[in-house]
Amino acid sequence: MGFPTQRPRRLRQSETWRRLTRETRVTCDDLVYPLFIVPGVRVRHPVESMPGVAQLSVDEAAVEAKRVLAAGVSAVILFSAPDHKDPQASAFLDPNGLVPLAVRAIKAACPEMLVWTDVCLCSATDHGHCGHVLADGTIDNDSSIETLAKVALNHARAGADAVAPSDMMDGRVAAIRRLLDAHGRANTPIVSYAAKYASSFYGPFREAADSAPAFGDRRSYQMDPANAREALREVELDLEEGADLVMVKPAGPYLDVIRRVREQVSVPVVAYQVSGEFSLIKAASQRGWIDERAAALETLTAIKRAGADLIISYFAPDVLRWQRS
């Protein structure tokens, strides 16, 4: 047999060659870091199911924002777990609530950092659902989007650089856009959780955000994991309603959806590497089964390669350190 004339290995023979010919790169500019805000002062409470992640009081969130900015991460997304919970999620309408206070504190500490806010009702309701619950246990879509729009406006007035509705109610992007525009916030972008699936990978997050539903599940409003064409419909509807960026959540189990969305739209595509994805890597690495750094970077690269422009990830502050070492 003759020797092969095509030898792809020629470009893999050293790290320098591999680096020069690398097709996909993940940088800190691609990443958004989640922060969980809780009541109190000097609170830094570790989330047991998410090693390295903590619930933070407002003052500690500002400290954490400065730390991750120094690590190269220039955007955070805020979630909160208020003490007061009621059927109407009234804690999220308070202009001096946890998220508005945290937005102001982080912007004061790090003016150049972009602060996104998650817009949902689940962690401020006593029932734990993402919208208002009727007497028969169903989620009322239209009253829910009115409240969601008010929550988004509350965050925008506090100085949020973007609002990110994650509830999956129909029409909420349009409701938010109308209210923001009517109150002088036309320049506030909407990052829509356009294709958010009813996933089994959200468990650790619900500990961090204290947002587990008190009854039932969220399958009547979050998407069926079996559906991909429906995700494209959801994305198109949100763009028609005024979304500026669209998100696929989770990321790793839905790389095919990320790719299909990327091919369909021209706006930035965000993917959320969710808590379960993070905790699986952490747990396996702690047992010596996998290399945490290698696995995290490989999964982030796969998400970017699939077509995500931005990735929300709990690994975000580690990326620059790993890439330098």
Helix and strand string, N-terminal first?
A: HEEEHEHEEEHEHEHHEHEHHEH
User: What are the segments in which pLDDT stays under 50 over at least 5 consecutive residues?
Assistant: none
> What count of domains describes the coordinates?
1
- CATH architectural designation: Alpha-Beta Barrel
Helix share, percent: 25-40%
Descriptive account of the structure:
It is a single chain. The chain has 325 residues and is an alpha/beta fold. It has a single domain (24-324), classed as TIM Barrel. Helix content is 39%, strand content 16%. The chain has eleven helices and twelve strands. The chain has helices at residues 15-20, 58-70, 98-109, 141-158, 172-182, 203-209, 229-241, 255-264, 275-286, 292-306, 316-324, and strands at residues 31-37, 44-46, 54-56, 75-80, 114-119, 132-133, 139-140, 162-165, 191-196, 245-249, 269-272, 310-312. Strands 1, 2, 3, 4, 5, 8, 9, 10, 11 and 12 form a ten-stranded mixed β-sheet that branches. It has a two-stranded antiparallel sheet with strand order 6-7. Helix 2 (58-70) crosses helix 3 and helix 4 crosses helix 5. It is globular.
What's this entry about, in short?
By secondary structure, the chain is of the alpha/beta class.
Features:
alpha/beta; two-stranded antiparallel ribbon; single chain; 39% helix; 325 residues; globular
